[in-house]
Amino acid sequence: LVLSSRQIDLDASLHVDGQTTSDLRATLSAWQSALMMGETDLRAPFPVAVDLKIESILAGGDTLKNVQLQSLVQSDGVVVKALSAELPGQGRVSASGRAGLARGGQFFGHVALDAKDMPRLLGWIEGEISGRSNRIGTAKEMKLDADVALSTSVAAASNLNLTLDRSAISGLVRYSVGDDGARSRVDAQLASNALI
Q1: According to the model, what pLDDT value does residue 159 have?
Q2: 81-111: pLDDT as tens digits
Q3: What would the DSSP string read from start to end of 43-109?
Q4: Each residue of 134-166: pLDDT tens digit?
Q5: Nearest-angstrom CA–CA distance, 165 and 163
Q6: Nearest to 10 by CA among 25, 29, 26, 27
Q7: What pTM does this model have?
Q8: How far is residue 107's CA from residue 177's CA, in Å, rounded to a whole number?
Q9: What is the enclosing helix (H) or strand (E) of 149?
Q10: What angle do CA 109, 76, 74 make, to 5 degrees?
């Protein structure tokens, strides 16, 4: 199954609390809820290869360009063979792995991300009104390559290689949400050549 489009407006297609939204997290959450079928995940009774090519996607008040996805929807979930897109902040992301929408969503696989203007990219992700984030101080350029596990209970990166301007960080990091009122936990084994 091959699907292509010149433009898709995710912000205008769904309403959050009765109005359109330009907040990326609210937009993605609304689309996840719309695609969910109860507590079951997006599955197919037999394998279906789905390829998407979209020239631009409006989401979170900004534009993703040249979005391409090669995937296989199976009875036990979705295999992301290859995903790539150009992001705000002169960014580019590529990913492959396994994904699901149930139980808050999850992804397990490999991600590579680079951005020439990281404050701009983070500002879009965080929904900053100013359009820029100061979370990473004065750093501007970023490159990240890692094997990741993302779900509502854990966010982890192993074989992590992160470069912020001239500073390089490698290793692994894991954030686990505490169960039944317990504290959340961060575990990390990182090495760096310099502090930002």
Answers
A1: 97
A2: 999 999 999 999 999 999 986 766 789 999 9
A3: --SS-EEEEEEEEEEEETTEEEEEEEEEEEEETTEEEEEEEEEEETTTEEEEEEEEEE-GGG-EEEE
A4: 777 788 999 999 999 998 889 999 999 999 998
A5: 6
A6: 27
A7: 0.80
A8: 16
A9: strand 142-150
A10: 90
User: What's the confidence (pLDDT) of residue 24?
Assistant: 77
**Cβ contact 85:92 at 8 Å:** yes
Instruction: Report d(CA 163, CA 169) in Å as an integer.
Output: 6
Locate 67 and state its tokens.
């979005």
Residue with tokens 């984030």: 133
57, two tokens: 């996607």
Question: 48-59 and 167-176: which strand pairing?
Answer: unpaired
Q: How many Cα atoms within 13 Å fall on the side-chain side of residue 73? A: 15
